[in-house]
Design goal:
The protein has 611 residues and is α/β, with parallel strands linked by helices. It is built from 21 helices and 26 strands. Helix 10 links the parallel strand 17 and strand 18. The structure holds 5-amino-5-deoxy-1-O-phosphono-D-mannitol.
Protein backbone atom coordinates (compact mmCIF):
# COMPACT_ATOMS: atom_id res chain seq x y z
CA UNK A 1 0.00 0.00 0.00
CA UNK A 2 1.50 3.27 -1.13
CA UNK A 3 4.66 3.37 -3.14
CA UNK A 4 7.61 5.49 -2.17
CA UNK A 5 10.64 6.41 -4.22
CA UNK A 6 13.67 8.62 -3.67
CA UNK A 7 16.85 9.65 -5.43
CA UNK A 8 19.98 11.53 -4.52
CA UNK A 9 23.03 11.83 -6.77
CA UNK A 10 24.44 13.90 -9.60
CA UNK A 11 21.50 13.49 -11.98
CA UNK A 12 18.27 15.47 -12.05
CA UNK A 13 15.91 13.68 -9.65
CA UNK A 14 12.56 14.40 -11.35
CA UNK A 15 12.76 11.96 -14.29
CA UNK A 16 13.98 9.18 -12.01
CA UNK A 17 11.37 9.79 -9.34
CA UNK A 18 8.45 10.11 -11.76
CA UNK A 19 9.43 6.93 -13.60
CA UNK A 20 9.75 5.20 -10.24
CA UNK A 21 6.24 6.32 -9.35
CA UNK A 22 4.88 4.87 -12.60
CA UNK A 23 6.48 1.56 -11.70
CA UNK A 24 5.09 1.66 -8.16
CA UNK A 25 1.65 2.87 -9.11
CA UNK A 26 0.21 -0.62 -8.65
CA UNK A 27 0.71 -0.07 -4.90
CA UNK A 28 -1.87 2.71 -4.79
CA UNK A 29 -3.28 5.31 -7.13
CA UNK A 30 -5.42 7.66 -5.06
CA UNK A 31 -2.90 10.47 -5.50
CA UNK A 32 0.71 11.09 -6.44
CA UNK A 33 3.26 13.68 -5.40
CA UNK A 34 6.92 14.65 -5.47
CA UNK A 35 9.27 16.90 -3.55
CA UNK A 36 12.42 18.14 -5.28
CA UNK A 37 15.35 19.67 -3.51
CA UNK A 38 18.03 21.75 -5.22
CA UNK A 39 18.35 25.49 -4.99
CA UNK A 40 14.91 25.39 -3.32
CA UNK A 41 12.30 22.91 -2.09
CA UNK A 42 9.46 22.30 -4.53
CA UNK A 43 6.42 20.15 -3.76
CA UNK A 44 3.83 19.11 -6.35
CA UNK A 45 0.97 16.75 -5.63
CA UNK A 46 -2.29 15.80 -7.23
CA UNK A 47 -5.30 13.59 -6.60
CA UNK A 48 -5.47 10.65 -9.02
CA UNK A 49 -2.89 8.71 -10.97
CA UNK A 50 0.71 9.60 -11.70
CA UNK A 51 -0.35 10.81 -15.16
CA UNK A 52 -2.42 13.57 -13.49
CA UNK A 53 0.66 14.71 -11.59
CA UNK A 54 2.76 14.66 -14.77
CA UNK A 55 0.25 16.96 -16.50
CA UNK A 56 0.14 19.21 -13.48
CA UNK A 57 3.89 19.85 -13.37
CA UNK A 58 4.26 20.80 -17.04
CA UNK A 59 6.08 24.12 -17.20
CA UNK A 60 6.95 24.12 -13.50
CA UNK A 61 10.38 24.27 -11.86
CA UNK A 62 11.57 20.65 -11.64
CA UNK A 63 15.19 21.35 -10.80
CA UNK A 64 16.94 19.36 -8.08
CA UNK A 65 19.38 16.47 -7.60
CA UNK A 66 17.46 15.11 -4.65
CA UNK A 67 13.85 14.04 -4.81
CA UNK A 68 11.20 11.92 -3.15
CA UNK A 69 7.89 10.73 -4.59
CA UNK A 70 4.79 8.98 -3.35
CA UNK A 71 1.82 7.17 -4.83
CA UNK A 72 -0.98 6.84 -2.29
CA UNK A 73 -3.51 4.28 -1.21
CA UNK A 74 -5.65 6.33 1.15
CA UNK A 75 -5.92 5.35 4.80
CA UNK A 76 -6.28 8.56 6.85
CA UNK A 77 -8.23 11.14 4.91
CA UNK A 78 -10.01 10.92 1.57
CA UNK A 79 -8.08 10.98 -1.70
CA UNK A 80 -7.58 14.67 -2.53
CA UNK A 81 -4.73 17.09 -3.22
CA UNK A 82 -4.34 18.14 0.42
CA UNK A 83 -4.00 14.59 1.70
CA UNK A 84 -1.56 13.65 -1.05
CA UNK A 85 2.09 13.21 -0.04
CA UNK A 86 4.69 14.71 0.31
CA UNK A 87 3.66 16.67 3.36
CA UNK A 88 5.51 19.74 4.52
CA UNK A 89 6.27 20.63 8.12
CA UNK A 90 4.76 23.75 9.62
CA UNK A 91 8.02 25.68 9.26
CA UNK A 92 8.18 24.67 5.60
CA UNK A 93 11.65 23.26 6.20
CA UNK A 94 10.93 19.52 5.98
CA UNK A 95 9.08 17.35 3.47
CA UNK A 96 8.14 13.73 4.03
CA UNK A 97 6.43 10.74 2.41
CA UNK A 98 5.16 7.75 4.30
CA UNK A 99 3.86 4.24 3.68
CA UNK A 100 2.06 2.70 6.64
CA UNK A 101 -0.21 3.78 9.47
CA UNK A 102 0.69 5.70 12.61
CA UNK A 103 -1.82 4.18 15.01
CA UNK A 104 -1.25 6.68 17.84
CA UNK A 105 -1.32 9.72 15.58
CA UNK A 106 -4.45 11.14 17.26
CA UNK A 107 -2.79 11.51 20.67
CA UNK A 108 0.37 13.00 19.13
CA UNK A 109 -1.80 15.40 17.13
CA UNK A 110 -3.56 16.54 20.32
CA UNK A 111 -0.19 17.38 21.89
CA UNK A 112 0.84 19.32 18.81
CA UNK A 113 -2.47 21.21 18.60
CA UNK A 114 -1.90 22.42 22.16
CA UNK A 115 1.43 23.79 20.97
CA UNK A 116 -0.32 25.70 18.19
CA UNK A 117 0.55 23.46 15.31
CA UNK A 118 -1.87 23.65 12.38
CA UNK A 119 -2.59 20.88 9.97
CA UNK A 120 -3.46 21.20 6.33
CA UNK A 121 -4.41 17.55 5.79
CA UNK A 122 -6.21 14.72 7.60
CA UNK A 123 -3.21 12.43 7.43
CA UNK A 124 -1.22 10.68 10.12
CA UNK A 125 1.87 11.49 8.04
CA UNK A 126 1.62 15.24 8.53
CA UNK A 127 1.29 14.61 12.27
CA UNK A 128 4.46 12.51 12.35
CA UNK A 129 6.39 15.06 10.33
CA UNK A 130 5.46 17.95 12.61
CA UNK A 131 6.18 15.77 15.60
CA UNK A 132 9.70 15.17 14.28
CA UNK A 133 10.15 18.91 13.79
CA UNK A 134 8.81 19.61 17.27
CA UNK A 135 11.15 17.03 18.82
CA UNK A 136 14.08 18.69 17.08
CA UNK A 137 13.18 22.16 18.41
CA UNK A 138 12.57 20.90 21.94
CA UNK A 139 15.71 18.82 22.15
CA UNK A 140 17.91 21.18 20.15
CA UNK A 141 19.29 18.13 18.43
CA UNK A 142 20.16 17.09 14.91
CA UNK A 143 17.38 16.10 12.52
CA UNK A 144 18.75 12.57 12.57
CA UNK A 145 18.41 12.37 16.34
CA UNK A 146 14.93 13.93 16.23
CA UNK A 147 13.76 11.27 13.77
CA UNK A 148 15.05 8.54 16.07
CA UNK A 149 13.38 9.99 19.15
CA UNK A 150 10.09 10.55 17.34
CA UNK A 151 10.00 7.09 15.80
CA UNK A 152 10.48 5.49 19.20
CA UNK A 153 7.11 7.05 20.20
CA UNK A 154 5.34 5.74 17.13
CA UNK A 155 2.91 2.83 17.35
CA UNK A 156 2.16 1.37 13.95
CA UNK A 157 3.95 0.81 10.68
CA UNK A 158 6.01 3.15 8.59
CA UNK A 159 8.49 3.58 5.89
CA UNK A 160 9.40 7.26 5.64
CA UNK A 161 11.61 9.31 3.37
CA UNK A 162 12.31 12.78 4.69
CA UNK A 163 14.24 15.70 3.22
CA UNK A 164 15.20 19.06 4.66
CA UNK A 165 15.92 22.44 3.06
CA UNK A 166 18.96 22.64 5.35
CA UNK A 167 20.59 19.57 3.78
CA UNK A 168 19.75 19.68 0.07
CA UNK A 169 21.52 16.43 -0.79
CA UNK A 170 20.38 14.20 2.05
CA UNK A 171 17.49 11.76 2.34
CA UNK A 172 16.61 10.32 5.73
CA UNK A 173 14.84 6.96 5.50
CA UNK A 174 13.48 4.63 8.15
CA UNK A 175 11.24 1.60 8.25
CA UNK A 176 9.16 -0.57 10.51
CA UNK A 177 6.68 -2.95 8.95
CA UNK A 178 6.68 -1.33 5.48
CA UNK A 179 9.32 -2.27 2.93
CA UNK A 180 12.34 -0.25 1.84
CA UNK A 181 15.03 -1.13 -0.70
CA UNK A 182 18.06 1.05 -1.42
CA UNK A 183 19.78 0.77 -4.79
CA UNK A 184 23.49 1.52 -4.71
CA UNK A 185 24.64 3.34 -7.85
CA UNK A 186 27.85 5.10 -8.78
CA UNK A 187 27.91 7.72 -6.02
CA UNK A 188 24.12 7.90 -6.18
CA UNK A 189 21.30 6.16 -4.29
CA UNK A 190 17.82 5.06 -5.28
CA UNK A 191 15.25 4.35 -2.58
CA UNK A 192 11.96 2.55 -3.17
CA UNK A 193 9.25 0.31 -1.76
CA UNK A 194 10.44 -2.45 -4.05
CA UNK A 195 13.16 -2.99 -6.59
CA UNK A 196 11.10 -2.16 -9.70
CA UNK A 197 12.06 1.54 -9.86
CA UNK A 198 15.71 0.67 -9.19
CA UNK A 199 16.38 -2.20 -11.57
CA UNK A 200 17.26 -0.09 -14.61
CA UNK A 201 19.94 1.84 -12.75
CA UNK A 202 21.66 -0.76 -10.58
CA UNK A 203 21.38 -4.37 -9.51
CA UNK A 204 23.09 -3.79 -6.16
CA UNK A 205 20.52 -3.32 -3.44
CA UNK A 206 20.24 -3.18 0.33
CA UNK A 207 17.05 -4.39 2.02
CA UNK A 208 16.58 -2.16 5.04
CA UNK A 209 15.34 -3.98 8.16
CA UNK A 210 12.69 -2.95 10.65
CA UNK A 211 13.88 -0.35 13.19
CA UNK A 212 16.74 0.72 10.93
CA UNK A 213 17.30 4.14 9.45
CA UNK A 214 19.46 5.15 6.53
CA UNK A 215 21.02 8.52 5.87
CA UNK A 216 21.97 8.82 2.21
CA UNK A 217 23.71 11.58 0.32
CA UNK A 218 25.80 11.38 -2.88
CA UNK A 219 28.70 9.03 -2.20
CA UNK A 220 27.66 8.21 1.37
CA UNK A 221 25.23 5.77 2.96
CA UNK A 222 25.00 5.40 6.72
CA UNK A 223 22.83 2.66 8.15
CA UNK A 224 21.91 2.70 11.84
CA UNK A 225 19.38 1.17 14.15
CA UNK A 226 17.05 3.30 16.22
CA UNK A 227 19.50 2.91 19.10
CA UNK A 228 22.00 4.95 17.02
CA UNK A 229 24.30 1.97 16.49
CA UNK A 230 25.91 1.70 13.06
CA UNK A 231 24.84 -1.33 11.03
CA UNK A 232 26.81 -2.90 8.21
CA UNK A 233 24.82 -2.59 4.98
CA UNK A 234 24.46 -5.97 3.28
CA UNK A 235 24.48 -5.58 -0.49
CA UNK A 236 22.44 -8.13 -2.47
CA UNK A 237 22.49 -8.64 -6.23
CA UNK A 238 19.06 -8.36 -7.82
CA UNK A 239 18.09 -11.31 -9.97
CA UNK A 240 15.56 -9.46 -12.10
CA UNK A 241 15.53 -8.05 -15.62
CA UNK A 242 13.97 -4.78 -16.75
CA UNK A 243 11.80 -6.65 -19.28
CA UNK A 244 10.09 -8.43 -16.39
CA UNK A 245 8.52 -5.18 -15.21
CA UNK A 246 7.46 -3.91 -18.64
CA UNK A 247 4.33 -4.78 -20.59
CA UNK A 248 6.21 -6.40 -23.46
CA UNK A 249 3.66 -5.46 -26.13
CA UNK A 250 0.56 -6.39 -24.11
CA UNK A 251 -2.10 -3.80 -23.47
CA UNK A 252 -2.22 -4.56 -19.75
CA UNK A 253 0.01 -6.17 -17.16
CA UNK A 254 -2.84 -8.48 -16.17
CA UNK A 255 -3.04 -9.95 -19.67
CA UNK A 256 0.74 -10.21 -19.94
CA UNK A 257 0.88 -11.98 -16.61
CA UNK A 258 -1.87 -14.43 -17.62
CA UNK A 259 0.08 -15.15 -20.81
CA UNK A 260 3.34 -15.42 -18.82
CA UNK A 261 2.04 -18.48 -16.97
CA UNK A 262 3.43 -21.23 -19.19
CA UNK A 263 6.86 -19.71 -18.52
CA UNK A 264 6.38 -18.87 -14.86
CA UNK A 265 5.08 -22.34 -14.00
CA UNK A 266 8.05 -23.76 -15.86
CA UNK A 267 10.48 -21.39 -14.09
CA UNK A 268 9.03 -22.49 -10.78
CA UNK A 269 9.71 -26.14 -11.63
CA UNK A 270 13.10 -25.55 -13.23
CA UNK A 271 15.90 -27.40 -11.46
CA UNK A 272 13.42 -28.71 -8.89
CA UNK A 273 11.06 -31.09 -10.61
CA UNK A 274 13.08 -33.89 -12.20
CA UNK A 275 10.93 -36.81 -13.35
CA UNK A 276 13.93 -38.22 -15.25
CA UNK A 277 15.55 -39.06 -11.90
CA UNK A 278 12.32 -39.27 -9.91
CA UNK A 279 13.46 -36.38 -7.72
CA UNK A 280 12.03 -33.12 -6.49
CA UNK A 281 14.82 -30.93 -5.19
CA UNK A 282 13.81 -28.12 -2.84
CA UNK A 283 16.45 -27.32 -0.28
CA UNK A 284 14.04 -25.61 2.12
CA UNK A 285 12.14 -28.87 2.36
CA UNK A 286 15.12 -31.24 2.19
CA UNK A 287 16.79 -29.45 5.09
CA UNK A 288 13.68 -29.71 7.26
CA UNK A 289 12.20 -33.00 6.09
CA UNK A 290 12.11 -34.66 9.52
CA UNK A 291 10.09 -31.83 10.95
CA UNK A 292 7.76 -31.75 7.96
CA UNK A 293 6.98 -35.46 7.80
CA UNK A 294 6.45 -35.60 11.55
CA UNK A 295 4.33 -32.46 11.78
CA UNK A 296 1.17 -33.28 13.73
CA UNK A 297 -0.57 -30.43 11.94
CA UNK A 298 0.07 -27.81 9.28
CA UNK A 299 -1.51 -24.38 9.52
CA UNK A 300 -1.57 -22.31 6.35
CA UNK A 301 -1.77 -18.55 6.83
CA UNK A 302 -2.49 -16.16 3.94
CA UNK A 303 -4.84 -13.55 2.48
CA UNK A 304 -6.85 -13.18 -0.72
CA UNK A 305 -5.67 -15.20 -3.69
CA UNK A 306 -2.82 -16.66 -1.65
CA UNK A 307 -5.44 -17.94 0.81
CA UNK A 308 -7.19 -19.69 -2.08
CA UNK A 309 -3.89 -21.37 -2.98
CA UNK A 310 -3.74 -22.46 0.67
CA UNK A 311 -7.21 -24.03 0.44
CA UNK A 312 -6.14 -26.15 -2.52
CA UNK A 313 -2.98 -27.13 -0.66
CA UNK A 314 -5.16 -28.30 2.23
CA UNK A 315 -6.82 -30.83 -0.08
CA UNK A 316 -3.47 -31.84 -1.58
CA UNK A 317 -1.52 -32.22 1.66
CA UNK A 318 -4.27 -34.15 3.39
CA UNK A 319 -4.63 -36.43 0.36
CA UNK A 320 -0.94 -36.99 -0.34
CA UNK A 321 0.72 -36.59 3.07
CA UNK A 322 -2.08 -37.48 5.49
CA UNK A 323 -1.24 -34.50 7.68
CA UNK A 324 -4.20 -32.48 9.04
CA UNK A 325 -4.22 -28.97 7.58
CA UNK A 326 -5.99 -25.81 8.68
CA UNK A 327 -6.17 -22.77 6.42
CA UNK A 328 -6.47 -19.44 8.17
CA UNK A 329 -7.16 -15.90 7.04
CA UNK A 330 -4.14 -14.08 8.43
CA UNK A 331 -6.32 -11.12 9.42
CA UNK A 332 -8.39 -13.35 11.72
CA UNK A 333 -5.59 -15.60 12.88
CA UNK A 334 -3.46 -12.71 14.13
CA UNK A 335 -6.14 -11.61 16.58
CA UNK A 336 -7.09 -15.05 17.82
CA UNK A 337 -5.26 -16.90 20.51
CA UNK A 338 -4.53 -19.96 18.39
CA UNK A 339 -3.42 -23.19 19.97
CA UNK A 340 0.02 -23.96 18.62
CA UNK A 341 1.32 -27.38 19.59
CA UNK A 342 4.84 -28.70 19.57
CA UNK A 343 5.85 -29.67 16.05
CA UNK A 344 3.11 -27.69 14.27
CA UNK A 345 4.33 -26.21 11.01
CA UNK A 346 3.06 -22.89 9.71
CA UNK A 347 3.07 -22.35 5.95
CA UNK A 348 2.84 -18.68 5.00
CA UNK A 349 1.81 -17.93 1.42
CA UNK A 350 2.28 -14.44 0.01
CA UNK A 351 3.06 -12.99 -3.39
CA UNK A 352 4.43 -9.71 -2.06
CA UNK A 353 5.89 -11.06 1.15
CA UNK A 354 4.79 -7.77 2.73
CA UNK A 355 1.10 -8.31 3.56
CA UNK A 356 0.75 -6.76 7.00
CA UNK A 357 -1.80 -9.22 8.37
CA UNK A 358 0.24 -12.24 7.30
CA UNK A 359 3.42 -10.72 8.64
CA UNK A 360 1.99 -9.99 12.07
CA UNK A 361 0.25 -13.38 12.27
CA UNK A 362 3.63 -14.99 11.66
CA UNK A 363 5.41 -12.83 14.21
CA UNK A 364 2.84 -13.96 16.78
CA UNK A 365 3.26 -17.68 16.15
CA UNK A 366 7.02 -17.35 15.82
CA UNK A 367 7.07 -16.09 19.41
CA UNK A 368 5.25 -19.28 20.39
CA UNK A 369 8.02 -21.35 18.84
CA UNK A 370 6.28 -22.45 15.62
CA UNK A 371 8.35 -23.34 12.57
CA UNK A 372 7.52 -21.08 9.63
CA UNK A 373 7.83 -22.15 6.02
CA UNK A 374 7.38 -19.22 3.62
CA UNK A 375 6.10 -19.54 0.07
CA UNK A 376 6.81 -16.09 -1.29
CA UNK A 377 7.30 -14.47 -4.68
CA UNK A 378 9.21 -11.29 -3.90
CA UNK A 379 12.80 -12.17 -3.11
CA UNK A 380 14.15 -10.53 0.03
CA UNK A 381 10.69 -9.46 1.22
CA UNK A 382 9.82 -9.31 4.90
CA UNK A 383 7.98 -12.66 5.05
CA UNK A 384 10.78 -14.37 3.13
CA UNK A 385 13.28 -13.02 5.61
CA UNK A 386 11.35 -13.87 8.74
CA UNK A 387 10.58 -17.47 7.71
CA UNK A 388 12.74 -20.29 9.07
CA UNK A 389 12.78 -21.93 5.66
CA UNK A 390 10.89 -21.61 2.43
CA UNK A 391 10.59 -21.80 -1.31
CA UNK A 392 10.38 -18.87 -3.69
CA UNK A 393 7.73 -19.08 -6.39
CA UNK A 394 9.95 -17.46 -9.05
CA UNK A 395 7.01 -15.94 -10.93
CA UNK A 396 8.87 -12.66 -11.48
CA UNK A 397 7.37 -9.28 -10.61
CA UNK A 398 3.58 -9.32 -10.65
CA UNK A 399 2.33 -5.83 -11.38
CA UNK A 400 -1.36 -6.24 -12.24
CA UNK A 401 -3.22 -5.74 -8.99
CA UNK A 402 -5.28 -8.88 -9.59
CA UNK A 403 -3.02 -11.80 -8.85
CA UNK A 404 -2.70 -14.36 -11.65
CA UNK A 405 0.74 -15.81 -12.32
CA UNK A 406 1.69 -15.66 -8.65
CA UNK A 407 -1.26 -17.97 -7.91
CA UNK A 408 -0.27 -20.71 -10.36
CA UNK A 409 3.33 -20.47 -9.17
CA UNK A 410 2.16 -20.85 -5.56
CA UNK A 411 0.17 -23.91 -6.57
CA UNK A 412 3.19 -25.35 -8.35
CA UNK A 413 5.35 -24.97 -5.24
CA UNK A 414 2.61 -26.38 -3.01
CA UNK A 415 2.07 -29.41 -5.22
CA UNK A 416 5.82 -30.13 -5.37
CA UNK A 417 5.95 -29.75 -1.61
CA UNK A 418 3.01 -32.12 -1.04
CA UNK A 419 4.50 -34.68 -3.42
CA UNK A 420 7.89 -34.48 -1.80
CA UNK A 421 6.62 -34.81 1.75
CA UNK A 422 4.09 -37.51 0.82
CA UNK A 423 6.73 -39.59 -0.90
CA UNK A 424 9.23 -39.19 1.95
CA UNK A 425 6.50 -40.05 4.44
CA UNK A 426 5.46 -43.06 2.32
CA UNK A 427 1.86 -41.90 2.20
CA UNK A 428 1.93 -42.12 -1.59
CA UNK A 429 3.36 -44.85 -3.74
CA UNK A 430 6.15 -44.12 -6.19
CA UNK A 431 3.84 -44.69 -9.20
CA UNK A 432 1.40 -42.01 -8.04
CA UNK A 433 4.24 -39.66 -7.07
CA UNK A 434 5.84 -40.13 -10.47
CA UNK A 435 2.63 -39.77 -12.47
CA UNK A 436 1.78 -36.49 -10.70
CA UNK A 437 5.29 -35.21 -11.42
CA UNK A 438 4.77 -35.94 -15.11
CA UNK A 439 1.36 -34.26 -15.01
CA UNK A 440 2.91 -31.20 -13.40
CA UNK A 441 5.59 -31.02 -16.08
CA UNK A 442 2.82 -30.99 -18.70
CA UNK A 443 1.07 -27.95 -17.18
CA UNK A 444 2.92 -25.17 -19.08
CA UNK A 445 1.99 -26.63 -22.47
CA UNK A 446 -1.60 -27.17 -21.44
CA UNK A 447 -1.83 -23.54 -20.30
CA UNK A 448 -0.54 -22.56 -23.76
CA UNK A 449 -3.37 -24.53 -25.34
CA UNK A 450 -5.99 -22.83 -23.14
CA UNK A 451 -4.66 -19.40 -24.04
CA UNK A 452 -4.87 -20.23 -27.76
CA UNK A 453 -8.64 -20.52 -27.41
CA UNK A 454 -9.00 -17.06 -25.97
CA UNK A 455 -11.48 -15.93 -28.66
CA UNK A 456 -14.24 -18.10 -27.20
CA UNK A 457 -13.68 -16.63 -23.75
CA UNK A 458 -13.77 -13.09 -25.17
CA UNK A 459 -17.13 -13.88 -26.76
CA UNK A 460 -18.54 -15.11 -23.44
CA UNK A 461 -17.23 -12.00 -21.67
CA UNK A 462 -19.03 -9.78 -24.17
CA UNK A 463 -22.25 -11.72 -23.74
CA UNK A 464 -22.38 -11.48 -19.94
CA UNK A 465 -20.63 -8.17 -19.26
CA UNK A 466 -23.83 -6.45 -18.14
CA UNK A 467 -24.82 -9.04 -15.55
CA UNK A 468 -25.26 -7.66 -12.04
CA UNK A 469 -24.11 -10.84 -10.28
CA UNK A 470 -22.23 -14.03 -11.03
CA UNK A 471 -22.13 -17.32 -9.18
CA UNK A 472 -19.04 -19.56 -9.40
CA UNK A 473 -19.45 -23.20 -8.39
CA UNK A 474 -16.99 -26.07 -8.03
CA UNK A 475 -16.47 -29.14 -5.90
CA UNK A 476 -13.42 -30.67 -4.23
CA UNK A 477 -10.17 -29.29 -5.64
CA UNK A 478 -12.22 -26.91 -7.76
CA UNK A 479 -14.14 -25.28 -4.94
CA UNK A 480 -11.20 -22.91 -4.19
CA UNK A 481 -10.96 -22.27 -7.94
CA UNK A 482 -14.60 -21.14 -7.86
CA UNK A 483 -13.68 -18.76 -5.02
CA UNK A 484 -10.71 -17.46 -6.99
CA UNK A 485 -12.82 -17.00 -10.14
CA UNK A 486 -15.31 -14.93 -8.16
CA UNK A 487 -12.57 -12.83 -6.55
CA UNK A 488 -10.95 -12.10 -9.93
CA UNK A 489 -14.25 -11.02 -11.47
CA UNK A 490 -15.11 -8.76 -8.52
CA UNK A 491 -11.70 -7.13 -8.59
CA UNK A 492 -11.47 -6.23 -12.25
CA UNK A 493 -15.11 -5.87 -13.38
CA UNK A 494 -16.82 -4.61 -10.18
CA UNK A 495 -19.55 -7.20 -10.75
CA UNK A 496 -20.75 -8.84 -7.58
CA UNK A 497 -19.71 -12.50 -7.62
CA UNK A 498 -19.80 -15.36 -5.16
CA UNK A 499 -17.86 -18.58 -5.14
CA UNK A 500 -19.53 -21.58 -3.54
CA UNK A 501 -19.11 -25.33 -3.20
CA UNK A 502 -21.51 -26.58 -5.87
CA UNK A 503 -23.42 -28.87 -3.53
CA UNK A 504 -23.77 -26.20 -0.86
CA UNK A 505 -25.69 -24.05 -3.33
CA UNK A 506 -28.89 -25.88 -2.42
CA UNK A 507 -28.58 -24.55 1.12
CA UNK A 508 -29.22 -20.94 0.19
CA UNK A 509 -27.64 -19.38 -2.90
CA UNK A 510 -29.96 -21.26 -5.24
CA UNK A 511 -32.56 -18.66 -4.26
CA UNK A 512 -30.57 -16.17 -6.35
CA UNK A 513 -30.93 -18.14 -9.55
CA UNK A 514 -33.14 -16.80 -12.32
CA UNK A 515 -32.77 -16.25 -16.04
CA UNK A 516 -30.49 -13.24 -15.49
CA UNK A 517 -27.85 -15.00 -13.38
CA UNK A 518 -24.71 -16.37 -15.07
CA UNK A 519 -23.44 -19.39 -13.15
CA UNK A 520 -19.90 -20.50 -13.89
CA UNK A 521 -19.29 -24.19 -13.21
CA UNK A 522 -15.76 -25.53 -12.89
CA UNK A 523 -16.69 -29.00 -14.04
CA UNK A 524 -13.69 -30.83 -15.44
CA UNK A 525 -13.46 -34.62 -15.24
CA UNK A 526 -12.90 -35.67 -11.63
CA UNK A 527 -14.32 -37.82 -8.84
CA UNK A 528 -17.26 -35.45 -8.47
CA UNK A 529 -18.15 -35.15 -12.14
CA UNK A 530 -21.49 -36.99 -11.96
CA UNK A 531 -22.43 -34.98 -8.87
CA UNK A 532 -21.67 -31.70 -10.55
CA UNK A 533 -23.74 -32.74 -13.57
CA UNK A 534 -26.70 -32.89 -11.18
CA UNK A 535 -25.85 -29.42 -9.86
CA UNK A 536 -25.72 -28.09 -13.42
CA UNK A 537 -29.18 -29.58 -14.04
CA UNK A 538 -30.49 -27.93 -10.89
CA UNK A 539 -29.41 -24.51 -12.18
CA UNK A 540 -30.72 -25.25 -15.68
CA UNK A 541 -34.13 -26.16 -14.23
CA UNK A 542 -34.25 -22.69 -12.68
CA UNK A 543 -33.27 -20.99 -15.94
CA UNK A 544 -29.84 -19.82 -14.78
CA UNK A 545 -27.31 -19.16 -17.58
CA UNK A 546 -24.64 -21.82 -17.39
CA UNK A 547 -21.03 -21.16 -18.37
CA UNK A 548 -19.06 -24.36 -17.90
CA UNK A 549 -15.33 -25.00 -17.82
CA UNK A 550 -15.11 -28.62 -18.95
CA UNK A 551 -12.46 -31.06 -20.11
CA UNK A 552 -11.98 -31.51 -23.86
CA UNK A 553 -14.26 -34.24 -25.16
CA UNK A 554 -16.92 -33.64 -22.50
CA UNK A 555 -20.25 -34.65 -23.99
CA UNK A 556 -22.61 -34.27 -21.05
CA UNK A 557 -22.34 -30.79 -19.54
CA UNK A 558 -21.41 -29.46 -22.99
CA UNK A 559 -24.96 -30.18 -24.11
CA UNK A 560 -26.61 -28.65 -21.07
CA UNK A 561 -24.58 -25.47 -20.67
CA UNK A 562 -25.27 -22.23 -22.50
CA UNK A 563 -21.57 -21.56 -23.00
CA UNK A 564 -18.64 -23.93 -22.74
CA UNK A 565 -14.90 -23.46 -22.33
CA UNK A 566 -13.15 -26.75 -23.08
CA UNK A 567 -9.64 -27.17 -21.71
CA UNK A 568 -7.07 -29.99 -21.83
CA UNK A 569 -7.72 -32.97 -19.58
CA UNK A 570 -5.53 -33.45 -16.50
CA UNK A 571 -5.31 -35.51 -13.32
CA UNK A 572 -7.89 -34.09 -10.92
CA UNK A 573 -5.20 -33.03 -8.46
CA UNK A 574 -3.43 -30.99 -11.12
CA UNK A 575 -6.69 -29.60 -12.55
CA UNK A 576 -6.78 -26.39 -10.45
CA UNK A 577 -3.59 -25.16 -12.15
CA UNK A 578 -5.40 -25.24 -15.49
CA UNK A 579 -8.97 -24.53 -14.52
CA UNK A 580 -8.16 -21.11 -13.11
CA UNK A 581 -6.74 -19.84 -16.43
CA UNK A 582 -10.08 -19.45 -18.28
CA UNK A 583 -11.53 -17.72 -15.21
CA UNK A 584 -8.64 -15.24 -15.16
CA UNK A 585 -9.20 -14.54 -18.87
CA UNK A 586 -12.96 -14.24 -18.42
CA UNK A 587 -12.52 -11.64 -15.68
CA UNK A 588 -9.95 -9.75 -17.71
CA UNK A 589 -12.19 -9.52 -20.77
CA UNK A 590 -15.32 -8.62 -18.79
CA UNK A 591 -13.29 -5.76 -17.23
CA UNK A 592 -12.09 -4.69 -20.69
CA UNK A 593 -15.60 -4.88 -22.16
CA UNK A 594 -16.75 -2.58 -19.38
CA UNK A 595 -13.93 -0.15 -20.17
CA UNK A 596 -12.29 -0.50 -16.76
CA UNK A 597 -8.67 -0.12 -15.71
CA UNK A 598 -8.03 -3.80 -15.05
CA UNK A 599 -4.46 -3.24 -13.89
CA UNK A 600 -5.48 -0.74 -11.26
CA UNK A 601 -9.00 -1.50 -10.09
CA UNK A 602 -10.61 1.10 -7.86
CA UNK A 603 -9.93 1.01 -4.12
CA UNK A 604 -7.32 -1.75 -4.39
CA UNK A 605 -3.58 -1.87 -4.01
CA UNK A 606 -1.18 -4.61 -4.87
CA UNK A 607 0.55 -4.96 -1.59
CA UNK A 608 -1.64 -4.58 1.49
CA UNK A 609 0.83 -3.30 4.05
CA UNK A 610 -1.81 -1.94 6.41
CA UNK A 611 -4.15 -4.06 8.47
O1 LIG B 1 0.94 -10.40 -1.51
P1 LIG B 1 -0.03 -11.38 -0.92
O2 LIG B 1 -0.12 -12.64 -1.67
O3 LIG B 1 0.18 -11.61 0.54
O4 LIG B 1 -1.43 -10.65 -1.08
C1 LIG B 1 -2.61 -11.22 -0.60
C2 LIG B 1 -3.82 -10.51 -1.16
O5 LIG B 1 -3.81 -9.16 -0.83
C3 LIG B 1 -3.90 -10.64 -2.68
O6 LIG B 1 -3.90 -11.97 -3.09
C4 LIG B 1 -5.17 -9.96 -3.22
O7 LIG B 1 -6.30 -10.65 -2.78
C5 LIG B 1 -5.12 -9.87 -4.73
N1 LIG B 1 -5.53 -8.57 -5.16
C6 LIG B 1 -5.96 -10.88 -5.39
O8 LIG B 1 -5.99 -10.74 -6.77
Amino acid sequence: MCGIVGYTGNKQAYPIVIKGLQRLEYRGYDSAGIALLGSSLKIYKKKGKVSALEKDVIGKDLEGNTGIGHTRWATHGEPNDANAHPHQSQSGRLAMIHNGIIENYASIKQELLLKDYHFTSDTDTEVLLNFIEDVQYNNECSLEEAIRIALKRVVGAYCILLISKDEPETIYAARKGSPLVIGVGDGEYFLASDASPIIEYTKEVIYVNDFEMAIVRPGELILKNLGNEKQTPFITKLDMELAAIEKGGFEHFMLKEIYDQPDTVFDCQRGRLLPETGQIIMSGIDNNMDMLINAPRIIIVACGTSWHAGLIAEYWIEELCRIPVEVEYASEFRYRNPVINKGDVIIAISQSGETADTLVALENVKKQGAFIFGIVNVVGSSIARMSHAGAYTHAGPEIGVASTKAFTAQLTVLMMMALKIGYAKKTIAYERYYSLMVELVAVPNKIRQIIKNVAGIQRIAKKYKDANDFLFLGRGYNFPIALEGALKLKEVSYIHAEGYPAAEMKHGPIALVDETLPVVFVATRDTYYQKIVSNVQEIKARKGKIIAVVAEGDDVITHIANDVIAIPDADELIGPLLNVIPLQLLSYYVGIEKGLDVDKPRNLAKSVTVE
